[in-house]
Write a structure and sequence with these properties.
The chain is α/β, with parallel strands linked by helices and 420 residues long. The chain has three domains: 142 residues, no CATH class; 101 residues, no CATH class; 90 residues, no CATH class. It has ten helices and 19 strands. The strands form two sheets. It has a 16-stranded parallel beta sheet that branches. It has a three-stranded parallel beta sheet with strand order 9-11-13. Strand 16, helix 7 and strand 17 form a beta-alpha-beta unit. The longest helix has 21 residues. It starts with 16 loop residues before the first helix and ends with a strand. The N terminus is likely disordered.
């Protein structure tokens, strides 16, 4: 006889605690804690959560008076204290805190909570803090040997006048593989401590940081990201194991790529922020083995530095995909021609032109797709390049010229042409 299953009862509450805590780990911690009011069965379930995600930015503060804002802040601080006093001291898999710190009392409570989180030995640690005043991270964060992934952001109202937020006494993170730092002062001493104290570090991302570095050197890094950083002087990047490099800079203080033999993917963007550099920019020699290159420069001063680097351009024998963005033929003709000349195995080409700075004749001359192999005179002349393997060309240029450009390029090559 078939057994009749009762579907009217509370079947979820009958699940084992490990399953319930696993389910609760997928929702914000504040919501998970609220389950304690469901019934006696749920009172202690949240205290064994392997994940703590605390995001004060999910609370809407717009339109609140100062008094109402302070009451919300006090409520959140009490919530943090409640977790410290009531949660079981079991290992954490993930700890994330995203919060705005205002007063000194708030600073003290947040630091205590961070120390508590470190005592639970998390595998993933993410701390994003906005502060209107000086804030110091607990030193215990930098000696937590369980951490494998870490993201630390310390943002003030004025990121260019902070005073070295990151200055631990020592760093010992033997299992850390991924590190992201945001809105921090970084000098050579700190970078040396990070590299030596993180012996298996594979990925490093520096975002909105003030770089007072002369060198980033590592034999174990395989991915390096520099995003919207302010560079104070010339810097050398020497990472023979790096496979992927991304540089998006708002200020160029001089960058030299050295010992980048493993580099396969490079995305380099220099934004025009009205700043200039008196330093050398030596990038091309470090790109000899790349298979994919994206290069976008909107600052004429930086373009002048790259043009001076053209004699150092190697043969890009492995380059299959090339994207040149922000092209302005008042500045970029020689650089574009140089890169095309040195990329005989290129398959995919993307050209993004500045509006009203290029003529159809210039584009067709740059893309001199001769049906036969160009002569040495043509090749040395700077307008022809070998294209036996070229499969696709994508072009973005002023709208009124799109049709004519496509006709010109179609005439010169059998590669698939598309207009962006």
């Amino acid at each position: 006889m078939m057994e009749v299953i009762d579907l009217t009862g509370d079947r979820i509450s009958g699940l084992p605690d490990p399953i319930l805590t696993h389910i609760l780990s997928f929702i914000p911690t504040e919501e998970a804690v609220r389950t304690c009011i469901l019934s006696k069965r749920w009172i202690k379930v949240w205290t064994c959560l392997p994940v703590l995600v605390l995001d004060d930015h999910t609370t809407q503060y717009d339109g609140l008076t100062q008094e109402e804002y302070q009451q919300r802040e006090i409520k959140f601080l009490r919530f943090l204290s409640g977790i410290m006093f009531n949660r079981e001291m079991i290992t954490l898999d993930t700890f994330k805190l995203d919060w705005c710190v205002n007063g000194w009392d708030t600073h003290i409570i947040v630091c205590r909570f961070l120390c508590y989180a470190v005592m639970c030995r998390p595998r993933i640690l993410s701390i994003h803090i906005e502060s209107s005043r000086y804030f110091t991270l607990p030193d215990s964060i930098f000696t937590c040997t369980s951490i494998e992934e870490m993201s630390l952001w310390l943002e003030t109202n004025d990121i260019f006048h902070k005073d070295n937020f990151l200055k631990p006494i020592s760093i010992n993170l033997p299992f850390l593989k991924n590190l992201e730092l945001g809105y921090m002062d970084l000098n050579d001493d700190i970078m040396t401590m990070l590299i030596s104290g993180c012996p298996v570090l594979e990925e490093l991302a520096l975002i909105h940081c003030w770089l007072k570095l002369s060198m980033i050197s590592s034999n174990v890094l395989n991915k390096l990201v520099l995003t919207n950083c302010y560079q104070c002087g010339p810097m050398e990047i020497s990472c023979p194991g790096v496979v992927s490099l991304s540089v998006t800079s708002i200020n160029v203080g001089g960058i030299t790529l050295k010992n980048m033999s493993s580099l396969a993917t490079a995305d380099i963007i220099f934004l025009d922020q009205g700043s200039t550099s008196n330093y050398d920019l030596r990038l091309l020699s470090g790109l000899s083995n790349v298979t994919s290159l994206k290069l976008q420069i909107t600052c004429p001063a930086v373009m002048d530095l790259l043009l001076a680097d053209i004699p150092n351009c190697p043969t890009l024998k492995n380059l299959k995909s090339l994207e040149l963005g922000g092209l302005d033929f008042n500045y970029d003709w020689n650089l574009a021609a140089c890169l095309l000349q040195h990329s005989s195995n290129l398959k995919d080409l993307i050209l993004l032109f500045h509006p009203e700075t290029v003529t159809c004749y210039q584009i067709s001359e740059l893309l001199n797709f001769s049906p036969t192999k160009p002569t040495e005179e043509e090749f040395q002349g700077g307008i022809a390049f070998r294209h036996e393997y070229l499969e696709a060309v994508k072009i973005s240029c002023p709208g009124k010229k799109v049709k004519l450009v496509k006709e010109l390029v179609d005439f010169y090559t059998t590669a698939e042409i598309s207009i962006l």
